[in-house]
């Protein structure tokens, strides 16, 4: 076995642990003295932090969650450029028939960051829904792809006031972007493996949003600007315990 595959496995683990940093939990705990999981929707994501703790905390959560995904995939991209990627152990000398190209590796590291955010080891595998981490990951895949999804996300959010709908929409749009941009080149990679992994990643993100999807279908999804009364929920939590 080549030594390169050891580095590739380590980068996958790095992607998971980057993603698993519980930004929303840390902001709530150390910045405001609350466990964000006990308020609002209980989700450790931008929307719940925004409603519960305000714009500054929400924006900080969004940016840092995107940074988690971006750092993980950027490290993978540097490795592809300078580290001698061996097609994830599938070269001819090892007897593997498949060719897991560079797009596969980038998309897989992105998926590991998404998994880390949703299933963080530090919080008993109960985390967020990973849309922001996925957006950060695609920034490192290609900044143009990131600009495309962020413009669409912002326009949808501005017009519908539904963050979950905006997140789910750009998750679908990211699939062809991984196919086209995911790889060693900046453009026109057309990686079938990146496409396959990005579909799996999108399915996972949709599964994490299953409650939101149900509320969207029934017209009961909470819109942006509907704030959570933290003091009232603190009182209710204390009375219930």
- How many separate structural domains? 1
Q: Which percent band covers the strand fraction? A: under 5%
End-to-end span in angstroms? 55 Å
CA-atom Rg in angstroms: 19 Å
* Backbone shape: globular
Overall pLDDT score: 87
Uncertain regions: pLDDT < 50 for 5+ in a row?
A: 233-241
How many DSSP E strands? 0
Number of helices: 11
List SSEs in N-to-C order: HHHHHHHHHHH
The structural class is mainly alpha
Oligomer: single chain
Structure description:
This protein has 241 residues and is mainly α. It has helices at 4-19, 23-32, 46-53, 55-82, 102-118, 131-141, 143-160, 163-181, 192-208, 210-218, 230-240. Helix 2 (23-32) packs antiparallel against helix 4. The chain is globular. Mean pLDDT is 87; it is low at 233-241.
What's this entry about, in short?
The protein has one domain (4-232). The protein contains eleven helices and no strands.
Write the layout of secondary structure elements.
Blueprint: H1 4-19, H2 23-32, H3 46-53, H4 55-82, H5 102-118, H6 131-141, H7 143-160, H8 163-181, H9 192-208, H10 210-218, H11 230-240
Helix pairs in contact: 1-4, 1-5, 2-4, 3-4, 4-5, 4-6, 5-6, 5-9, 6-7, 6-8, 7-8, 8-9
Supply the key terms.
241 residues, mainly alpha, 11 helices, 0% strand
